[in-house]
Specification:
The protein has 3 domains: 5-217; 250-344, Tetratricopeptide repeat domain (Serine Threonine Protein Phosphatase 5, Tetratricopeptide repeat, Alpha Horseshoe); 352-409 and 424-612, Sandwich (Jelly Rolls). It has 21 helices and 14 strands. It has 622 residues and is an alpha+beta fold. The protein has helices at residues 5-25, 44-48, 65-89, 124-131, 141-158, 165-186, 192-217, 221-233, 237-250, 255-267, 271-284, 289-301, 305-318, 321-344, 357-362, 367-380, 391-404, 438-441, 446-454, 528-532, 594-599; strands spanning 28-29, 94-102, 105-112, 352-354, 382-386, 417-421, 424-428, 459-468, 478-479, 500-506, 517-519, 546-550, 554-557, 566-574. Helix content is 46%, strand content 12%.
Length: 622
C-alpha cells in the first residue's frame, strides 16, 4: 500500500525519534575514539588519497581518472570549509554503528551520533537543508518536522546547546557521507555488476557532497564566489549558476554576487539576464569603467544601440587615457551599426552591411555585425554585403566564366540554360576551377550568416549565373518562389523563418548601366498584390560585394545598356528539406564532377552531399 504524504511524514518522524533515542542511549563512547571509520582528525590527505587513481589501480574502472582528479581538486579547494563543519561534529558523542558493507558482511564502526541521519532522506543535502536556512534544495514540511523531532530528542538527552545543534548535526552528516564515499572507494566490489552499482552510488554521493558544500558556502560571500569560480574553471556552469542564483535569492543586495551572476549569464549566452543584472550593479557602482564597458558590449551584441552608446560615452569620460582607445572603437562600431539600422529603414535604401578590409582578411567580424545582418535580412528579405570577397577571387571567377561559357553569349536557346527574360539566361554554373574555392561557397562571413538564418543543416541547392547580354531589356517583376504555405500568389504569407536565401554575387560591378537587380524590400512577407504596391530599391554593388534575396522577394533584373555581358552568380542556400521544384525543370541546379568534389575540404562537403542521394538529377560523384 502506498503511503500518502502525511503518513510518510509521521513514519519518518517516528523513525528519526527512535533513532535519536537509540543514538543517545546505546553504545556511547565517553571519549573521542581514535578508531573512527573515517579518520578521527578528518585530515584532508587521508580522504583525498583515496582519489589517487595511480596508486589504487583497482578503483580505476569506477570513475575516469580525469573525474577522480577533478573531484580531488575540488574537494581540496573546499577542504578548509569542510573541516570547520567536521570539527563541529567532534563535539557530538561517538557510538557504534553497524552497517552492511556487502550483502554477506556487516561492519561495526564507530561514528559520531547523527552520521547515519542522511540515510533516512533522499540525499544528505536534503538532510542538511532541513537543518540550515537558505538552501536551494526544496524540503518537504514533514521532513523538516521529523528532523526537528530528532534534534529535540538529541539535544535534550545529550544536553547539547540548541543553537549549535544544527551545525553539529550537519558536521555529523558530512562525517557519515565521507565515510560512505571512502567505503565505496575502498571496497568497490569484485564483479562487474557490483562495480557498476558502486560507480553509480559513488557518483551520487560525490554530487551530494558538492551540493552540501554549496549550501555551506552560502554562509559567506567569499566562499560562494570562490566555489562558483571553481565550478566555471571546471566547466560546471550549471552548478555555478545554481549556487549564484540561490545566493542572490538569499541576499539580493549583494553587489558581488549580482555581478558574478551577470558575468555567468553573459558566458552562457543569456544576454538579457546579464544586462538586467549589470544594470542593477551599475546603479550602485556608477563610475566603474570596466562595468560600463561590459554593459555596453552586451547591449551592442543585443543590438540595443542607443543605450550602448550612452554607456560607451559615460565610460569614455571616466576612463584613463590608456583605456580610451578600446572604448572609442566600441563606440564607433556601435554608432556605425546604429546608422546601418536607421538607414535600412529609409524608403529608397537597400539594407547594407559593410565589412572592413581587416574583417574580410581575418575572416571574422564582431558578433554584433553578424547579428545585425541577420536581423536586417529577416526584416527586409534583402541585404547588400559590401567587401565580402576579395576582388582577386571575383576577377578570376569572372574571367573563367566569360571564357568557359562564351558559347552561351548569343541570343539562342541552350539545353543547360533557362531563358529568364529578353537576352537574359540562367546558366548552370559548374562548381569548378576558380569557383571551387571555400571563400566563394563557404565564405567566412556569409556561411555563418546563412547558418544563423537557416540553421546548421543548410545546403547549397543551386549555383547558376543570371547572365544578361548587351542590349537586354528590363525583366518583369517576380518572386523566384512563392512563400511557403500559400496556395495562390495573392494569398497572404505567414511570417516564417527564412527557408531559401539567394546570394547574388556579381562577377563584375553592377550599376544602372549594365543593370543591377531591383528589389522590393519587405515584399518577401507580402502577397503578389500587396508587393505590387511597393516601390523598388536599387542595389549598386561593386565586384567583391554581394546581395541577398529571400526566395519570396519581388525583384527584377534591369536591362543591360552596355556592350559587355553582365553575369551575376545566384547561389541558393536553403534548408535541407526544401526542394525548389519550380526553377530547375530544364537546367541542372548543381554541377560538380568527382575531381572537383574531392577538392572540396571534407568539412564543407555537407553543403553539396545532398546531390548524391538517389534520384537527385545532378552531375555529382558517385
Ligand atoms: O538578372 C538579374 O538581375 C536577376 C535575375 C534573377 O535573379 C531572376 O530572374 O530570378
Amino acid at each position: 500500500m502506498a503511503l500518502n504524504k502525511e503518513t510518510r511524514g509521521d513514519a519518518l518522524t517516528a523513525h528519526l525519534s527512535a533513532l535519536a533515542e537509540r543514538q543517545t542511549t546505546t553504545d556511547l563512547f565517553a571519549e573521542q575514539s581514535s578508531r573512527l571509520q573515517f579518520d578521527g582528525n578528518y585530515k584532508a590527505s587521508t580522504f583525498l588519497d583515496l582519489f589517487d587513481a595511480s596508486v589504487v589501480e583497482h578503483r580505476l574502472p569506477l570513475l575516469e581518472v580525469s573525474t577522480l582528479e577533478q573531484y580531488r581538486a575540488m574537494l581540496q579547494d573546499r577542504w578548509s570549509l569542510l573541516s570547520e563543519w567536521l570539527e563541529a561534529a567532534s563535539h557530538l558523542p561517538v557510538l557504534k554503528v553497524e552497517s552492511a558493507q556487502r550483502a554477506d558482511e556487516s561492519v561495526i564502526s564507530n561514528r559520531v551520533a547523527g552520521s547515519t541521519l542522511h540515510h533516512h532522506f533522499d540525499s544528505a543535502c536534503k538532510a542538511v537543508s532541513c537543518l540550515l536556512e537558505g538552501s536551494p534544495m526544496e524540503v518537504e514540511p514533514h521532513e523538516k518536522f521529523a528532523m526537528a523531532a530528532f534534534s529535540k530528542v538529541c539535544g535534550e538527552r545529550l544536553q547539547l546547546p540548541a543553537d549549535r545543534l544544527p551545525v553539529q548535526l550537519t558536521g555529523a552528516i558530512l562525517v557519515g557521507l565521507l565515510a560512505d564515499i571512502a567505503a565505496l572507494l575502498e571496497n568497490p566490489g569484485e564483479s562487474r555488476p557490483e562495480r557498476r552499482v558502486t560507480r553509480k552510488k559513488l557518483r551520487t554521493c560525490l554530487s551530494d557532497l558538492l551540493d552540501i558544500l554549496d549550501v555551506l558556502s552560502l554562509q559567506s560571500t567569499d566562499h560562494t564566489l570562490q566555489f562558483s569560480e571553481d565550478y566555471l574553471a571546471n566547466k560546471r556552469e550549471h552548478r555555478a549558476r545554481r549556487l549564484l542564483e540561490t545566493a542572490h535569492r538569499n541576499n539580493s543586495d549583494c553587489v558581488d554576487i549580482q555581478l558574478a551572476l551577470a558575468r555567468l549569464y553573459a558566458r552562457v549566452g543569456q544576454s538579457l539576464q546579464s544586462v538586467q543584472h549589470l544594470q542593477a550593479v551599475i546603479l550602485v557602482c556608477a563610475d566603474d569603467v570596466q562595468l560600463r564597458r561590459e554593459l555596453a558590449s552586451l547591449l551592442l551584441e543585443r543590438l540595443e544601440f542607443s543605450e550602448a552608446v550612452n554607456h560607451w560615452k559615460y565610460a569614455l569620460i571616466l576612463a584613463r587615457p590608456d583605456e580610451q582607445l578600446q572604448l572609442r572603437r566600441g563606440l564607433e562600431l556601435t554608432e556605425d551599426l546604429h546608422d546601418c539600422k536607421v538607414s535600412a529603414a529609409l524608403d529608397d535604401t537597400v539594407p547594407t552591411i559593410t565589412l572592413t578590409d581587416e574583417e574580410r582578411i581575418s575572416g571574422s567580424c564582431h558578433p554584433a555585425k553578424l547579428a545585425l545582418a541577420a536581423k536586417l535580412y529577416q526584416l527586409y528579405g534583402t541585404l547588400v554585403i559590401h567587401n565580402v570577397f576579395s576582388t582577386e577571387l571575383i576577377e578570376k571567377c569572372g574571367e573563367e566564366f566569360l571564357h568557359r561559357y562564351r558559347r552561351y553569349f548569343t541570343n539562342r536557346k541552350h539545353q543547360t540554360a533557362l531563358q529568364i527574360g529578353d537576352r537574359r539566361f540562367q546558366i548552370s554554373l559548374a562548381l569548378a576551377g576558380a569557383f571551387n574555392d571555400p571563400e566563394f561557397y563557404a565564405n567566412p562571413f556569409i556561411l555563418p550568416l546563412m547558418k544563423r538564418l537557416l540553421g546548421d543543416k543548410l545546403i547549397i541547392g543551386s549555383t547558376v549565373c543570371a547572365t544578361s547580354l548587351p542590349g537586354s531589356r528590363d525583366q518583369h517583376g517576380h518572386k523566384d518562389h512563392r512563400a511557403l504555405f500559400t496556395d495562390a500568389a495573392d494569398d497572404d504569407p505567414m511570417t516564417l523563418p527564412p527557408v531559401a536565401v539567394t546570394t547574388m554575387i556579381p562577377l563584375v560591378s553592377v550599376n544602372e548601366e549594365n543593370g543591377t537587380t531591383l528589389v522590393k524590400k519587405g515584399s518577401h512577407r507580402l502577397s503578389r498584390r500587396a508587393s505590387n504596391k511597393l516601390d523598388y530599391q536599387l542595389p549598386i554593388v561593386p565586384a567583391g560585394s554581394c546581395y541577398l534575396m529571400d526566395m519570396a522577394l519581388t525583384h527584377k533584373g534591369q536591362g543591360n545598356r552596355t556592350d559587355e555581358v553582365r553575369p551575376i552568380v545566384n547561389m541558393v542556400y536553403h534548408r535541407s528539406w526544401f526542394v525548389d521544384n519550380k526553377n530547375f525543370r530544364k537546367q541542372p541546379p548543381l554541377q560538380i564532377d568527382s575531381v572537383e568534389y574531392r577538392r572540396i575540404p571534407v568539412k564543407n562537403r555537407y553543403l553539396f552531399d545532398w546531390a548524391i542521394q538517389p534520384g537527385a538529377s545532378v552531375n555529382t560523384p558517385r
